[in-house]
# Entry
Amino acid sequence: MKDTLWYKNAIFYEISVRAFKDSNGDGHGDLQGLIEKLDYLQYLGVDCLWLMPIYPSPLRDDGYDIADYYNIDPIYGTLDDFRALLHQAHRRGIRIIMDLVLNHTSDQHPWFQAARADCHSPYRDYYVWSDTDQRYRQARIIFLDTETSNWTWDEQAGQYYWHRFYSSQPDLNFDNPHVQEEMLNVARFWLEMGIDGFRVDAVPYLFERENTSCENLPETHAYLKRLRKLVDEHYLDCLLLCEANQWPEEVRLYFGEGDEFHMGFHFPLMPRLFMALKKERFEDVRHILESTPPIPEICQWCTFLRNHDELTLEMVSEEERRWMWEQYAPDPCMKLNLGIRRRLAPLLDNDRRKIELAHSLLFTLPGAPIIYYGDEIGMGDNLDLPDRNGLRTPMQWEDSPTAGFTYGVPFAPFPRAPYAPQQVNVAAQIGDPHSLLNVLRNMIAVRKSHPAFGGHGMVWIETGNPAVAAYLRLHPEETLLVFNNLSGRPQAVRVPAEHGGRWIDLLSGQVLPLVSELLLPSHGYLWLKRVSEL
Ligand code: GLC
# Structure
């Protein structure tokens, strides 16, 4: 029988194919390179890879500007390479989801080229045109640092076109039934090839309506339900993961009644994990989780610490955003749009205890976690590179000058010390049982073998200490008890009488008798299961 709920307790891993491993020496990562590294991903224990876009693209937005939905960009390889990747990943029990960019194309896409060249072309209406730039004024600008309007004048077309992201990414017109069909065909093409689903990019913005924010409109949900129907009818164990950077009430709508997305990123939780680590108090995390509406049983949140974009601060108040910038972006070059363009290790002061603790939270709170490539070894960033490119530098496999990433010249420079390949690389960590890589690998293995982590059941425990996040993860088969000390100092917590007794520390395998008080070391964490339940 197919396990259609596989995603609920899966470990996801986000990859920039360009930055992962180059097999042919052109300095850009490629699909053959990724195939070479599947054994590593299997060793780490990840279940599903999300590949950032690998379609032909002029790369004005690192591939999120697609010029052909039915092919692979030659820098990454061919469709045959992609089929080989799927085969090799599936052999190892690893699934692959791709980005499905519905909202917009590249301005180099033949549809847009035809649309701008001829107002009678059937493709003209594939995009959103206007004689004025005054329509849909309530829609916010997302790429605030680069764009001044969501409309751009096109000389050739003699009209303005609509775009929610860069002006090189014109929005498709989802009011056109042909566009709706085209994009379902795109999804069908890749699902037929055997991929395991999509991370669906920028879903809130598909439709535009006057006097609205042009986000999360009912028409958008209706269309996404059609996409889901396609998956359910023909590709039952495939996954749709929603990228909607919205408040929990809004994202909740993208799960529908279990008939829209299977999963959605929990954007509001992410900055609050960083707030909690810095304030050494868990209240913001508790509050956002308590104000997150329940989701259907078959659905799951996807939780993350970092990804390929800036650490977005859209889902916090203005005051919180200012505070986050003060705390985490001391140098103005670290700010980008409404966020912070830094990787995990530099954000957490390259402090091993904090990095482990952040993962302990990520792996034990509700949701299925996703790791951004390189964060498992504590890679840094290179802020000399513009925009978000500083977080997308080549994966550091060894301590050689090209880090084992390529035998040519890497497409981007590595981070400097203390994050250079000489200091941070897979080869050094793989052989060291105490390395970050191996500690996280152990956490992954433990997490995956406990269904309670993949369920929705969670109860906070009152320990009388605001620095210690303590909770039960509940499941019909087991009860787990987790403690996370956010403080840089040892903390004592009260253990409620009903939780006293013998527990096993799942990460070390040691038995731990819990009495009325527990002392946790600085940034310490414990994942426990009752001995009587073993
Ligand atoms: C999503 C992607 C981001 C991209 C944008 C436009 O937010 O994560 O990288 O720039 O969509 O496609």
Notes: The CA atoms of residues 384 and 505 lie 43 Å apart. The longest helix spans residues 177-193.
